[in-house]
Write a structure and sequence with these properties.
By secondary structure, the chain is an alpha+beta fold. It is about 30% helix and about 30% strand. The protein folds into two domains: about 110 residues, Probable inorganic polyphosphate/atp-NAD kinase, domain 1 (Rossmann fold, 3-Layer(aba) Sandwich); about 150 residues, Tumour Suppressor Smad4 (Sandwich), CATH 2.60.200. The chain has a six-stranded antiparallel sheet with strand order 7-6-19-16-9-10. A hairpin with a 2-residue loop joins strand 17 and strand 18. Helix 3 packs parallel to helix 4.
């Protein structure tokens, strides 16, 4: 076992691989594996075949057996791995093979075989904070409201065909169908109300977009972005502000800092985290007491 805070060459590596995600990236996964073997790493590769496999495989991993755990897939695969991981002595690394790869962008990891393999074998062990939505972990962010509804309803078959475009399709569908309820939030004891909210542990949202510029995985608190106004027009306006980088200039968008957030609204409304449904309202969001060691470039 290696000291998770000491930079060293990683040798015994468990790779949890989502082969469906890997198909999108034209052999990237195999190139990373070949380069890791060139580094002298001893690899154990476990392929997932259904939802939940990555979580199960991660739960069985121990720092007594491996020097690092690698999640090879999209942000959903990474989320499963961190939810399964019990032994936090085991450093985590990623092979970004998904649709948006938000965590890779957050840590500055290029989606190139050389950069990925070198980070796994010789990366910087960086302690980061992990969020909790009730008892489910998330790394990057959690969403309440319109974006959570889009994530919950997106068609998996369309996502396989057109990737990110599936979220655009579902966004327009939800603009017609969504009822735009209000949500009651309590941020470290302070009551707030919003049409939607993004609870950020990291800076990036949905790819390259930023709604909480001061959020960092190392900070130990959440940046909470509250979208005050409801309705189709405001939702489109917020989306435009996010895409164009102008969201920070909107007076009805407020960013607050908190360590614990409770959210109430229509019972059963979805809560999304890292691009997958994490749970349903009512919900409490907090920080995992233990820090996770992430291998970064």
């Amino acid at each position: 076992m290696i000291d998770p805070y000491q930079k060293t060459t990683t040798r015994r590596i468990l790779v949890i691989h989502n082969p469906i995600a890997g198909k999108r990236h034209g052999g990237l996964f195999q190139r990373v594996i070949d380069k890791l073997r060139d580094f002298g790493c001893m690899l154990t590769i476990r392929d997932t075949t259904r939802r939940g496999d990555a979580e199960t495989f991660a739960s069985e991993a121990s720092a007594d057996q491996f020097d690092a755990l690698v999640a090879a897939g999209g942000d959903g695969t990474i989320n499963e791995v961190i939810n399964g991981l019990d032994d936090f002595r085991l450093p985590l690394a990623i092979v970004p093979l998904g649709t948006t790869n938000v965590l890779a962008r957050e840590i500055g990891l290029a989606v190139q075989a050389d950069a990925i393999a070198r980070t796994i074998a010789e990366g910087n062990p960086t302690p980061i904070h992990v969020g909790l939505a009730n008892d489910r972990r998330f790394i990057q962010m959690a969403g309440i409201g319109f974006d959570a509804q889009v994530v919950a309803q997106v068609n998996p078959s369309i996502k396989k065909l057109i990737g990110k475009g599936a979220y655009v399709v579902e966004t327009f569908a939800q603009l017609v169908k969504y009822s735009f309820p209000r949500y009651r939030l309590t941020l470290d004891g302070k009551p707030e109300e919003a049409a939607s909210a993004v609870i950020s542990n990291g800076r990036y949202y949905g790819g390259k977009f930023v709604c909480t510029p001061d959020a960092r995985l190392e900070n130990g608190d959440f940046q909470v972005c509250l979208f005050r106004n409801s309705g189709r027009w405001n939702t489109l306006r917020y989306a435009w502000g996010l895409v164009t980088g102008r969201l920070g200039g909107y007076r009805d968008v407020v960013i607050m800092t908190a360590r614990e957030i409770t959210v109430e609204g229509p019972v059963g409304d979805p809560v999304q985290g890292d691009g997958d449904v994490l749970g349903h309202l009512p919900i409490t969001l907090s920080l995992e007491p233990r820090r996770l060691t992430l291998l970064t470039p």
